[in-house]
Design a protein that fits this description.
Elements lengths: L2 H47 L4 E12 L3 E12 L9 E11 L4 H4 L9 E7 L6 H6 L6 E7 L5 E7 L2 E6 L2 E5 L2 E7 L5 E15 L7 E16 L5 E16 L4 E17 L2 E15 L2 E16 H14 L15 H16 L3 E10 L4 E10 L9 H8 E11 H14 L5 H22 L3 E3 L2 E9 L2 E4 L2 E4 H12 L7
Antiparallel strand pairs: 1-2, 2-3, 3-4, 4-5, 5-6, 6-9, 7-8, 8-10, 9-10, 10-11, 11-12, 12-13, 13-14, 14-15, 15-16, 16-17, 17-18, 18-20, 19-20, 20-21, 21-22
Helix pairs in contact: 4-5, 7-8
Length: 494
């Protein structure tokens, strides 16, 4: 044997020995790691499902250890209380082929040579409950994935929902392209990143005596970048994008279609105060291939006291959680709960929260309408004061503006007539024009707005007890009296 070849063989032998030693060590530790991970997963599951009617648990059923790998079986139980007391829990079984580190073969063959503790290859198992799901996925496991656990307990995961074609009943069927998800998290799950993609989902359903309905979603992208806060929930960014959505409905089988839908949500915290932003955008809306328009909405909030919100949420979940039949319970708050709610509300207001609908825009072929409103709140000296005094102290400022386009109203009226089955172009145009003009007339007659050209305009500004309503200045008391007179027919209606 020549010297270079001997050196190479020596390296391979040493690497193999080290990998065997590492695999043996990992194999002795894997059960403790699994039990710890499952305990943490159950704790997190309980936290995320708190306040809902669903409960879930994960358990390790068995673990068969070998030198280079282990085989684990898990059971996932899900129970929905709203399904009634006789409903059986959903039970899912998973099999997991765990490759011991430091160099699992599945990573070596993909040129990932960084040492890791283990690589898990899991898959849903066939049971009487899941056999139809398996059949729809051509008898393959419809849910599978891989999770790599680093020695620092970081996790790198990949999950797949396989494509499926299924007939739900004689009138309903579903076509699903499959979905992939990738995610990474550090030890204890404090930082989480995830992304996913689905090509299409088509659901067709028909109820006897009713027109069929078809829902189609194309090009769905999901992404999250989150950090767990000191209060137990995640803050950060979430994004959902949909290339196209389509709904076919009604006797005429009208087709409503949206394109380029985007949802973006973000939240952050500064100490015990939280801020957030939600944005919804629809790039294009059509009905039966005729343009309707586009829309955008942006909402923001800041200086929200987190402990106070969590306390109020806890009371709501305890006392006002919907019952199994969907009805709201008739719950009486105890004196202690009433006192706690008042203290929480006062704490929320003491943080001087600010809430805003920054933008609500609807644009059609011939017009564009906009609305925005911003509110700032504060804690009143006492809630025992007259309502007007409480309002003056609690509402520190309000600013709202509305621009309603009459041509946009006409465009939407034409769409409404089309949905109602009207097909005559002249009739549709006349109805649209009438509705547009009537909106302007009613706005002026009620005194809520004024007409400027093709726009209906309204504005409301409040600060320090003074109101500016469409350019008219008055006190808050006078403004309330004006509204009561116009819509309540007198003070006796208060």
């Amino acid at each position: 044997m020549n010297k270079p070849l001997g050196v190479l063989v020596g390296i391979v032998v040493i690497a193999g020995a080290l990998n065997t030693a590492g695999a043996w060590y990992t194999g002795t530790k894997i059960e403790d790691v699994l039990k710890t991970s499952i305990q943490e997963a159950n704790k997190e599951l309980a936290s995320q499902l708190q306040g809902t009617t669903t409960h879930g648990t994960i358990e390790l059923v068995s673990l068969d250890r070998h030198l280079y790998s282990s085989t684990a079986h898990y059971r996932v139980n899900l129970q929905d209380d709203s399904a009634g007391p006789d409903a059986q829990p959903v039970e899912l079984l998973f099999v997991d082929n765990i490759e011991h580190g430091p160099l699992p073969w599945s990573r070596i063959k993909t040129f990932k040579w960084m040492p890791v503790m283990a690589t898990s290859n899991y898959a849903l198992e066939k049971t009487p409950f899941t056999e139809k799901w398996f059949a729809a996925a051509k008898d393959q496991s419809p849910l599978k994935g891989q999770v790599t656990l680093g020695y620092n307990r970081s996790v790198d995961g990949h999950m797949e929902l396989l494509p499926l074609e299924a007939t739900i009943d004689e009138n309903s069927n579903v076509s699903f392209s499959g979905l992939t998800m990738d995610g990474q998290t550090d030890a204890e799950g404090k930082n989480l990143k995830a992304k996913g993609y689905m090509d299409h989902l088509i659901l067709q359903a028909a109820t006897p005596g009713q027109p069929p309905v078809r829902v189609e979603l194309n090009g769905l992208t999901l992404a999250s970048d989150l950090t767990k806060s000191a209060y137990g929930f995640y803050l950060g960014q979430n994004i959902l994008e949909l290339s196209e959505g389509q709904l076919t409905f009604g006797e005429r089988q009208s087709v409503a279609k949206i394109k380029n839908f985007e949802y973006a949500g973000s939240a952050s915290a500064n100490g015990s105060l939280m801020s957030g932003r939600l944005s919804y955008t629809v790039g294009d809306i059509t009905l039966d291939d005729k343009p309707v328009g586009s829309a955008q909405m942006v909402m923001t909030a800041s200086s929200l006291d987190i402990p106070a919100m969590q306390s109020l949420l806890q009371i709501y979940q305890t006392k006002f959680q919907p019952q199994a039949d969907g009805t709201m319970p008739v719950a009486q708050l105890t004196p202690a709960e009433q006192a706690q709610m008042q203290a929480d509300v006062e704490k929320l207001l003491a943080a001087k929260p600010q809430l805003a609908l920054e933008k609500l825009t609807l644009k059609t072929t011939n017009g564009e309408s906009q609305f925005n409103v911003a509110v700032s709140l504060a804690q009143p000296t006492s809630f025992e004061q007259p309502p007007v005094e409480v309002t003056k102290q609690m509402l520190t400022s309000l600013d709202a503006k509305l621009q309603l386009s009459k041509p946009m109203i006409a465009d939407l009226s034409a769409v409404q007539a089309q949905l109602a089955g009207q097909t005559d172009p002249q009739t549709i145009e006349k109805m649209a024009s009438t509705n547009s003009e009537m909106a302007g007339v009613m706005a002026v007659q009620t005194g809520l707005a004024k007409v400027d050209g093709n726009n209906i305009l309204a504005s409301l500004n409040y600060a320090a007890g003074e109101v500016d309503f469409n350019g008219q200045n008055m006190t808050l008391e006078d403004f309330i009296n004006v509204m009561v007179t116009r819509f309540g027919a007198g003070p006796d209606r208060l």
